[in-house]
Each structure stands twice: as structure tokens, then as C-alpha cells.
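Let's see one such:

===
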Amino acid sequence: MGLKELLDELDDDLQSMKGQSLFRNLRRIDSPQSDKVTVDGRQYISLCSNNYLGLANHKVLKDASVTAIETYGTSASASRLMSGNMGLHEQLERVTAAFKQTEDVLVFNTGYMANTGIIQALASDTDAIFSDELNHASIIDGCRLSRAKVFIYKHRNTEHLRSLLLDASGYRRRIIITESVFSMDGDIAPLTEINSIAMNYDAVLIVDDAHATGVIGKNGRGSSEHYPHLNPLPEGEENSLPFKGRVRVGMGLFSSESQFITMGTYSKALGSFGAYIAGPAIIKKYLINKARPFIYTTALPPSVLAASIAAINLIQKDNSMLNNLWKNTMLFREKIKRLGFNTMNSETPIIPILIGSAEYTIKFSERLFQEGIFASAIRPPTVPDGSCRIRTTITAGHSIEDIEYCIGVFEKVGKELRAI
């Protein structure tokens, strides 16, 4: 097959996507990421950003980035194992480890790279992975690349997870992977039960905290702070099971008996870019030597590292943004549900509004856009057939007036399109 034949086939595929309402276009933003954005010269209320705390255009982060550029330049210029390891990389890891209350942290360039990197490093064709059916694409791809046997358990269904573990024996390692806050549904994994199952069945638990970092927990530390009462074993049973490889990795979920490892990002609530793996120090050392996305990628630039450090320092000093995020979230969710929309058990600032078909969801999104609201239509393969939705995300930066306006538009469009 030559290039012309390839292009013809690709065009046929694109036309098929259009016919199924699955074709995607890019919309260019001509303003900073904030509660309002500019598209084609018009201002829109943004309901589809992950800028939960409104930090993406914060002066403290911008000043830190500018200072880092003036001090260290614009690039790390190599992978960290070559000449790209800078003091800011190590400082960010120390700051993040203290924030997450873990023994150590390794910084990656993206959440996608962190997930694929740790899964490939820890699992092979002699291992078994147990993955929630709604896990992010980066987890799915990491599982595939690892060549491990993958068992998919029903969403948040701990009994199904337990039954799969019971039936799966003879593997070198058994690894459970779940998001804490699910990126398209906005619900939270039952981590207390999942962690207990992991401990009882001698499995390692990896938690994707991408949408939890800076969002849940009293101080925004994520899932470990959201479940501060977690005890991996019932009281009095600490010595009753033959666990292997026990490690002390910190506080909260990371108790002395826990085998819990966290992935998180700086690119969402923290308003910067990049990701991290948090857990035992030996995990960091192993990933430096085994995680291909870390080894073979130019390191994050100084400006990005400085912004992430500034963000963590800022949210630890000031809880007002987190409090405002949750005040706005509760207001929007309560009012949108009162209108009759299905928010799919959302517990977080990610509030999906179930529409149904792809065609209908696109039409709904376009009508919102005409009314001055930027909210994306989510379709397969991101979500299953028949569960297309408008994925709204509320931020600390939204005003009460913005939220009230959005509620009014949703009511108008919902009635117009007979969605409510």
C-alpha cells in the first residue's frame, strides 16, 4: 500500500466518524485558561477545564515561572539521566512528597507517561493486573504495553474485584489499579475497601489521583487525605496474614502495612504541568532505572517546575480556593439535578450530564456554545455507547452569577431539546 492508498483509507475512516457523530475538531482558545475564555473573539464561560482551583493564570505561579526562566533558561535540554536533572526537579519532588505525606516522589512529564511508565516497569507477562472498567486510557494503554494478564472488574464493584482475585492464582505479582476520582463520571473509588482487599490478597494497589490532587481531602492532598481513617486490616488482625514486601511509606493511606502507590498530576488543580509517582523510596529508584517514559524523555523545563512548586506552597497556605471550589460545586450540582438532569452519581467538581446518543450530545453542546457556554460533548471511545454526556467541571474561579447563568441556559436548552 502506497501513500495515496493510505490517505484514501484514512479519509474513509474520517468520513465514517462524521457519519456516526464521532469526528472531533479543535477549538482554539485565545486567552488565559480561566473561568472565562475567549474563542473567535467572543468570551465564553468555561465548563470543561480541569483548572479546578483557578491557578492556571495565577500571578504567584506566573512570577515563579518567569523567575525560573531568568535564572535557569527555557529548557532542561536532556533527560534527567543525561544532563537534564536540575535542582528544581529535586525540589519539586521534595515539596510533593511532603504534600502527599509519602516517603518519596518521582516527577514525570505527563500523567499519561507516569501511568504507562509505572505499569510497564512493575508488570510483565508473568503478572496479573486488575483494572476498573472505567479507568483512564493511560491506564488501559499501560496495561496493554506491560503484556500482563488483565482482569477488568465492574466499576467500583469490590465484590467483583474480590472474586477475580480469588480465581487468579499462579502470577508473580497481582496489581490492582483504579482512579480515585473518575475523570468522566466524577465519582470516587471505594478505596478503603479496595485497599483492604489488596492487603488481604497480597496485591499491590496503584491509585490514579490525577483529578483528586488539589481537589479532595481537607487540604487538597487527594485520596489519602479523603480517607484519613483507613486501616488496611481490621483491628487485631495485623499479624494474621502472610504479607510480603511490607514497607513504610508515610501517613494516612500509606500506613506501615499498606502497599499503596499514587500517581498524580500538576496539570489540573495545580494549574501547571507534569505528573508524579508517590510512594516508597525504592519505587522511585526502580522507576528511574526501568520506566521508559522517564528514561527516554527530555526533562520538564524550569518554568514548569517552578510553577508547580509555587502551586503546592500556595494551596497549603490558603484554603480559600478549595473551599470556594466545593461551595460552587455543591451549588451547581444541586441546581442542575433539581432541573431533572442525570449527573451520574458525581461526588466531585466533575459533573457529567447524561444526554445519550452522540448526535444528540453534540447538538446540546453546540446550543450551549451559542448561548456563551463552552462545555464539551463526550462520546465514544472516551465513554461507552449510549452514555454520551456533557462533562461539566466547576472551578473555584466561577462566580455565583456565572453559575446561575449556566443553570438558566441548561434549563433553556434542556427544555428546547427535550432533555428534561
